[in-house]
Every structure is written in structure tokens, then in C-alpha cells.
Amino acid sequence: MKYLLVVILLTAVFITSCKKDSFITSSTARLSTSADTLHFDTVFTTTGSITEFFRIYNDNNRRLRLSKVSLAGGSQSFFKMNVDGTAATEVTDLDIDANDSIYVFVTVKINPNTANLPFVVQDSIRIEYNGNIRWVQLQAWGQNANFFRSALITGNVTWTNNRPYVITGGLLVDQNATLTIQKGCRIYLHADAPFIVDGTLKVTGEKYDSTRVVFKGDRLDDPYRDFPGAWPGIYFRETSKDNVLQFANLLNAYQGVIAEKPSVNGNPKVTLSQCIIDNCYDAGILGIQSSVKGENCLVSNCGKNILLGYGGQYDFTHCTVASYSNSYILHKDPVLAVTDYVKDGNTLYTANCTANFKNCIFWGENGTVDNEVVTDKEGNTTFNVNFQNCLWKAKTNPANISAANIIANQSPLFDSINTQFKIYNFRLQDGSPAVNKGVATSLTIDLDGKPRNVGVPDLGCYEKQ
Fold first, then answer.
1. How is residue 13 annotated by DSSP?
2. 3 state SS of 445
């Protein structure tokens, strides 16, 4: 009796095992995919894309054989696929265990053509099993661009806005060269691509969104398009001179604008007019014993918005410098720090420092910072730092400065801030303490290119209209 029971049990296990190991061949077999369409955001021609993927699920209690998984466009397709570890345009007789799945990875590379505007390329992946056909659609936006890899700019060169500019490996403007970037240009930089200026950079944007000049990383797909530190930044080195950026947006860099060493003539090394520097992982503006002039600029949500060290000459008028902790950057450093020194190991180097801030806002929230404006002086160097008609958040007033008409620790009442939904509108609400609290300057417009009101101007980069 016991022998018979064992035989029955072994037979049941064998039958169950055979059932799971056998293939389901019915046309009613269940198959599903994790996506019915793969979307690729703007992909620049010749550079290729990230890898997207989807899964093919066998929703049955028996093995399922896919007779074919194929790329409809074949070898001529812009897309490439890898099915369960096999890179090919067609894979046949592919088995999926019961209640299991396989991965299909897809990339896209778009060849150049004569079109300057974005264009869409499409294809599809065909999945065949048990006489059935399933499709997964592929769609990518592609765009031609001007490509520079480890490039050197010599002489006088002008970039127009006929196509975007994609820079990999870095770009250097030679000491005796001038690069002029006209309105509406879009410059996309790879993670290995610093924009280095030993000569002169002229950015001539205009006030509308379509006519501003934009510098940002070349990853345009979610979620990477908003990541800080996507590209190194713009470096103005020792011999660089007479650089002017107007109506320019510098977004998502590691450091936005870096200016080192004093001006080689009587002009500022870098002049920033109506510029937006946003979401930089480290410093938005980093001055190292240099010379920077900023007018109507917004420096927002950077690790260290403005850091001016080892002295130098600086002049900021009608600027808004603000940070809020968000999902990318924790606000743990003051939005403005000014010092006359730099440390190299145990060695302290000092230099004269002159810095003027007029009609500016320095504010931060949702972080760990009590003092948003910090100054520090060492040695016997000149330290002439002045604040006039500014609003700041500071539990302790900055040291060794002169200040007049300061509004302290009153919220500027920005129009709308929502870190969860990435909404940052730094214009002023009605009733803001920054309205009509400035002093007259030579500036007649604001960051939007709109007129400063006749009479007493507002603080910050935006004038309440």
C-alpha cells in the first residue's frame, strides 16, 4: 500500500513537471508587454541615445516559444535592439519560462540629413507566437546639429541659430579669438565638455524665450534633462577679456560661470546682463580673484549660488539670488559668500577685495542656512564690501561690510514656489517688501526686458509690472 502511494505521488509530480516544461501552443496563450510604445526625446543626429527597454511577459503556466521577434525596419532602421542578450534585427525560437519574462533593449541613432528642424523617426518591433502578432511601437525625435568634439576656436567666429550646437570633449576659445553667439542659439554640452574661454566670448541674446541663448546638458530625456552637474560650465581663464553675456540661460551645469584671475584691462572680465544661472550642482557664479559684473541676473537653486573668493572686483545690481532645497540639491550653503582669501593646505593667500551689491535680493528656504549672506576677511588686505538697498535673510549680519537700507528677514514673497512640482517663479507678488524699495540706477529694463518703472525701482531682477 505504501509502495502504491509513493508511485502515485511520483507520477503526479512527474505529470506536473512535464506540464510546466511543455510548451503552450494554443493561439489563446496569454502574452503581455510592459509598454506598447517606447518614446525617445530629442536625439541629436550621429550622437545616439540612451537605452530604453520593455519586457515581454509569458502570463501562462507553461513555457511559451516566440517564433520571431523582429525589427520591422530591419538593417535599415534607425533603431537597434537586443533581445534577451542577443543583438540582432531578428531573433527566432526564443523560449520564455512559465510566468517569466525577457528584456528587449532598444537604442536609436539618427543619421544626418538636410533638415534643420526637429523630425520624427518611427519603427516597430514585431512579436510572433502561436500564430499571433503583437507590436511595440518605437518613436524618436531627431534633430540635426553643429557638432564640435575637443574643438579649438581661432580667429573671429560667429555662431548663428540655424541649428543647435552639440559639444563633446570640450571647446576652447583661443587667447586671440572671439566667439560671438547670436540670439536664439542653443548649445548642448556633454558631461565631458567644459566651455573654456582664453579669448573673448560675446553672447547676444534677446529678451524672448525663443531669442535667448541657452547653454545646457545634452541629455534631453527624462529624468536626466533636469539633473544638475550635466556639464562642467563656462570657464573664463587668466588671459580672457571683455566677455559679455546678455539674455543667456546657463542651466544644470556643475559650475555655471567660473572667472579666475584679475581683468587684463579696465573692463570686467565677465559682464552678465539679464542672465539666468539655474540648478548648478556647485557654484552658479565662482569668482577667484577676478572681475565680474552682473545686472538683472537670476542665480537660483545652486549648491552655492555666488561664491567670490581670494578677493577681486565685483559689481552686482538688481540681482535675485535664491535657493530652495529640492529633490536635486539640498540648500546647505549661503547664497552669497565673499572672502579675500583662499587656502592651499595650511597656506593662506589673501588679495584685495572690492564688491558692491545694489538693489539685490538674497534669500533661501527649506534648507539648513540661517545666514544667506556671509563675508570673511583675513590678513591686512583691502576689504571694501558694500550693500545698498538689499533684502537678505540673515540671523547674524555679515561682518566687515558697509550696509544701507537693508530689509532683513522679511520674505520677498516670490510669485510662486513649489519644489514638488519644480515651479520657481521669482517675480514679486503684490505686497512684497521688495517693491519700490530700490535706489535709482542706470538700468532701464529688468530680466524680462520689461521697463523699470519710472521712480523708485523694485529690488531683484524682476520689476513688478
1. H
2. strand
CA dist 302 and 328 (Å) reads: 10
Q: What is the DSSP string of 368-436?
A: S-SBSEEEE--TTS-EEEEEES-EE-BSSPPSS-EEES-EES----EEEEETTTTEEEEEEPTT-TTTT
At residue 4, φ and ψ (nearest 5 deg) are -65, -40
Tell me if 237 sits within 8 A of 173, measured CB to CB: no
Are 285 and 233 within 8 A, CB to CB?
no
C-alpha grid cell, residue 191? 558631461
Cell of 142: 531627431
**Of 74, 72, 71, 75, nearest in space to 83 by CA:** 71
Say whether pTM exceeds 0.90.
no
Q: How far, in Å, are 41, 107, 180, 247 from residue 213 at the CA level?
A: 21, 30, 11, 7
Cell numbers standing for residue 152: 579649438
Is-contact 141 166, C-beta < 8 A?
A: no
Residue type, 217: G
Per-residue pLDDT of the chain (465 residues; tens, 9 = 90+): 444 444 444 444 444 444 446 899 999 999 999 999 998 878 887 777 778 999 999 999 999 999 999 999 999 998 999 999 999 999 999 999 999 999 999 999 887 666 776 777 899 999 999 999 999 999 888 888 999 999 999 999 999 999 999 999 999 999 999 999 999 999 999 999 999 999 999 999 999 999 999 999 998 877 888 999 999 999 999 999 999 999 999 999 999 999 999 999 999 999 999 999 999 999 999 999 999 999 999 999 999 999 999 999 999 999 999 999 999 999 999 999 999 999 999 999 999 999 999 999 999 999 999 999 999 999 899 999 999 999 999 999 999 999 999 999 999 999 999 999 999 999 999 999 999 999 999 999 999 999 998 789 999 999 998
**Cβ neighbours for 82, distance < 8 A, ≥ 6 positions apart:** 104, 105, 106
CA distance 123 to 370: 55
By the 8 A CB rule, do 252 and 422 touch? no
